[in-house]
Design brief:
By secondary structure, this protein is an alpha+beta fold. It has 15 helices and ten strands. About 50% of the residues lie in helices and about 15% in strands. Strands 1, 2, 3, 4, 5, 6, 7, 8, 9 and 10 form a ten-stranded antiparallel sheet that branches. One of its GO terms (biological process) is endoplasmic reticulum calcium ion homeostasis.
Length: about 475
Amino acid sequence: MMHEKNAKFIVLCLMLTQCCLSPAATADSSFEDNDFAEFEDFDSDDDFVEVQQSNVGPQLSTAEEIPTLTEKGLKRDHSILEDDDDDGIVEDEDEFFKDEEEFEGFDSPDKDDEDLDQKTEPKLTVAKIPMHFRTHWDSYWMEMLMLAGLMVYFINFFAGKAKNANLANRWFNTHRALLDDNFVLVGDDGKMDNEKNGLIKESESLYTLWCSGRTCCEGMLVELKMIKRQDVVSLMAGLMRPQQDQIHIKIDLTRGVMDTFVFFVGTKRTVTKVFKEYSDLSKYCTQVSKPEIRYNVPNGLSVLSEIPEATAAILENRVIITLTKYQQYIDYLHISDQFSGPVQQEDANTLKQPDTKPILWAGFNLPREGNMEAVKPLLVLIFYLMERLKTYRMSKEGKQKAERNRLRVEEEFLKSTHAARAEAAAQRREEKRKQEKERVMAEDDPEKQRRWEMKEQKRQAKKKAPKMKRLAVKSL
């Protein structure tokens, strides 16, 4: 038993001895099999290899740990074995990249981070967020002003539109009976199936009425020009330049009903304006000086007259009384047999005088308070003037003067268009000769063509020859 125990003990010792010696053998074999062994030079097997690790890990000094660290370093390429007398040093990854001699221009990440933090330090900006609009209405004063302006505009539009329509209908209802007595058709709009005759709305501030079916006239057009109450801008302009509602009556008289004369009476401002605008007034009339003395016209009214005889016949006692009584509502009265509209711009190609027609025009102001009964006598005055023009006839001297005036105007027109007419006549002659030449050349008669060419040559030579006068000398 004792021998068996001793034998077992000896076997265990041998096994322990073998286990202790196996690391050394492994180390020797690793050094032999390592490809980088030629770069390693050791003085003796007993020397120790110093291992330098990072600041975090512990340092290894035993020879038993060298093979394991060497294998790891070789696999990761993170160790450097120096072929020198000094001992081999295995460097850590952080220490390896910090070598300034090995990596030029490479800065450590810690320094870069610190420099970037110092240079590009972020700046925080706080956005200014306005307070909620329900607590700060003053931030929207511009929008509120725009809304208020739009509201005022629309309120004024509907109010002004309604007032203009009310005034127009009031005037029509007041004068409807008088119009029906003088015209067969009142309120005709040109349609055969017109069931409701009355005012025609052209715009929010303009209403028209056409009446026809009366002797000595082709028809009467009534225009009610109201203030543009629906437009705020027009109302603001009216504060600086006051305006009034007006009614304009235009009557186209039948040709041959009235004598040949031109007459105008109206306010001084209107007379100054229309004298330059209408051709019949500027060509035939002259402004009467002191009409209040010559014709008893009320102060504030001016008169343009062609024939004094006709002016005195129109401004008779009844007309003067009406003008004086309703002067505040009267703007103008225009009677003419040579009315051709506004003055046209001079055109050299115009070879014909504009067409003329006899008219009776009148313009009255409507009452501001809307009492249309106050201006009803003015429409009666228009009908009276129509009958007056139908029956009035001038004297022989007056007619001769009117004829001379019309001849004078015609001669002035012919003089102003002489060059244009001469050019037109020359062009017509040239066209005629061209047509004759084409007709002759189209024929197959050479003798006829030769005679025509000789005739044309003589005409050209005569045209180029100098003009000479033949003087008759009496014999002694």
